[in-house]
Each structure stands twice: as C-alpha cells, then as structure tokens.
C-alpha cells in the first residue's frame, strides 16, 4: 500500500483580519501530494491549501473567508508552481525486473538446449 505525504511547496504570511479573533496574523500554506510505495515514488498534481491564524491557531475554512482573504489567497495561489507529475521507480523495482528477465532468459535457454 502506498503511503501519501503532503509536502509544503509554498507558505506566506497574510495581513488580513482573522474572522475568529480579528488579529492580523494569518498564514497560508500550499501542499502537494506525494505517494511513496515499495516499488515507486510518485508526485501527483494535487495541490491543497490551508489558512491558519497564528494567534488563535484556528483553521480558516473557505466558508468564513472575507473578500480580502479571498483576494489574497487567489494572489498567492497564482504564485504557486507545483512540481511536475513524475513517477520514479525504486531500486527494488529494477532488481525484480532484472530477476524476471533472467528467469525468462534461463527458461528459454534450457528449452532450446533440450531440442
């Protein structure tokens, strides 16, 4: 089973008011999903975000965003450049492929030798 991990790709401070405590100390973070398995490492194009108040430590969900928070969020969202989708195979994958090729080659060799 592949493990999923969110890797931070950008973090920025916002000077907008928090809808909960009305303090001007918000932080927006953008994360990209990475999947790790025994045979592969994959970077997906799925980007998630989170806005947190540094004072009251509450998450600010899109339902309670003000127009100012939404404008700031869209600005920083345009600045985010996620990593490309990639799929990298681990050394275990290549060893298994090499082992399968060697077994198939040995089987073909022995069938040819018997005729």
Strand order of the largest sheet: 1-2-3-4
Give the N-terminus to C-terminus distance in angstroms.
44 Å
Structural class: alpha+beta
Largest sheet: 4 strands, antiparallel
Helix content: 25-40%
Q: What is the general shape?
A: rod-shaped
**Uncertain spans:** none
Give the assembly state of these chains.
Answer: single chain
Strand proportion:
35-45%
Count of β-strands: 4
Tally of helical segments: 2
Transmembrane segments: 92-112
Keywords: Membrane, Transmembrane, Transmembrane helix
In short:
The chain crosses the membrane at residues 92-112. Keywords: Membrane, Transmembrane, Transmembrane helix. Helix content is 32%, strand content 36%.
Question: Could you please describe the fold and organization of this structure?
Answer:
It is built from two helices and four strands. It is an alpha+beta fold. It has a four-stranded antiparallel beta sheet with strand order 1-2-3-4. It has one domain (3-90).
List the helices and strands and how they pair.
Elements: E1 3-14, E2 26-36, E3 40-53, H1 67-79, E4 86-89, H2 91-114
Antiparallel strand pairs: 1-2, 2-3, 3-4
Keywords: Membrane, Transmembrane, Transmembrane helix
Transmembrane segments: 92-112
Question: What keyword list fits this structure?
Answer:
4 strands, rod-shaped, alpha+beta, 36% strand, 4-stranded antiparallel sheet, 32% helix, 115 residues
